[in-house]
Design goal:
The chain is an alpha/beta fold. The chain folds into two domains: 3-152, 2-Layer Sandwich (Nucleotidyltransferase, domain 5), CATH 3.30.420.10; 155-199, no CATH class. Helices cover 45% and strands 16% of the residues. It contains nine helices and five strands; from the N terminus they run αββαβααββααααα. It has a five-stranded mixed beta sheet with strand order 3-2-1-4-5, with helices on both faces. A hairpin with an 8-residue loop joins β1 and β2. The longest helix is centred in the last third of the chain and has 24 residues, at 130-153. The chain is elongated, with a radius of gyration of 19 Å. The protein starts with a helix and ends in a 10-residue tail after the last helix.
Length: 210
């Protein structure tokens, strides 16, 4: 069996829905018929289980890569295009001869050759393809670690709990404190909260705001 026939990559993302933080994508290369015990859609696992599996995936996978698109890129491109960009960046870090590149969902990023020729989308792939399931875990764990760092920088917002998703607590913090530089101003709840707070907080002398 050739190397290409023996290897495939799975691609998935984490962080399309949150109001803050980057969108993260991961690529995991496994051998044909390889299965990492316990791997499934990251959203169905506890944080502790995801962290344990991430260590196992990094150890057992043939290769893996994690990449992201920043809040600025999300606001400039839109969340879909930023997600596809993060996926492409993850794949660009690979250096394997692959028989397939399987992407969770129904949209394929613009991949470099030769990966574009073997790319295929798979709706629900994180439950159907072990490599995609593994990628979903690495992407989620990596993004959660970033959001914990944001919590240390902006403790008022509760990023350690909601990871940037639009929970009631997050929306209340936005209403009270306004948006941070890590919030996605292209998302309506952030835009509306920033506008509402700007209307409440009078301009200081010299044009600054509180």
């Amino acid at each position: 069996m050739t190397e290409a026939a023996a290897l495939l990559a799975g691609i998935d993302e984490a962080g399309r829905g949150p109001l803050a933080g980057p969108v993260v994508a991961a690529a995991v290369v496994l051998r044909k018929n390889q299965y990492v015990a316990g791997v499934r859609d990251s959203k169905k696992l506890s944080p502790a289980r995801r962290a344990d599996l991430a260590l196992l995936i990094r150890r057992e996978a043939v290769g893996w890569a994690v990449a992201s698109a920043s809040v600025r890129e999300i606001d400039e491109l839109n969340i879909l295009q930023a997600t596809l960009l993060a996926m492409r960046r993850a794949v660009e870090q690979l250096s394997f001869n692959l028989s397939a590149v399987r992407i969770d969902g129904n949209r394929c990023p613009d991949l470099p050759p030769p990966y574009a020729a073997v790319a295929e989308t798979l709706v629900g792939g994180d439950d159907l393809c072990p490599a995609i399931g593994a990628a979903s875990i690495l992407a989620k764990v990596s993004r959660d670690e970033y959001m914990l760092e944001l919590h240390r920088r902006y403790p008022r917002y509760g990023f350690d709990r909601h990871k940037g998703y639009p929970t009631a607590a997050h929306r209340r913090a936005l209403a009270e404190w306004g948006a941070t530089p890590e919030h996605r101003i292209s998302f309506r709840p952030v835009r509306e909260a920033a506008a509402a707070r700007a209307a409440r907080v009078p301009a200081q002398v010299g044009g600054g705001t509180q």
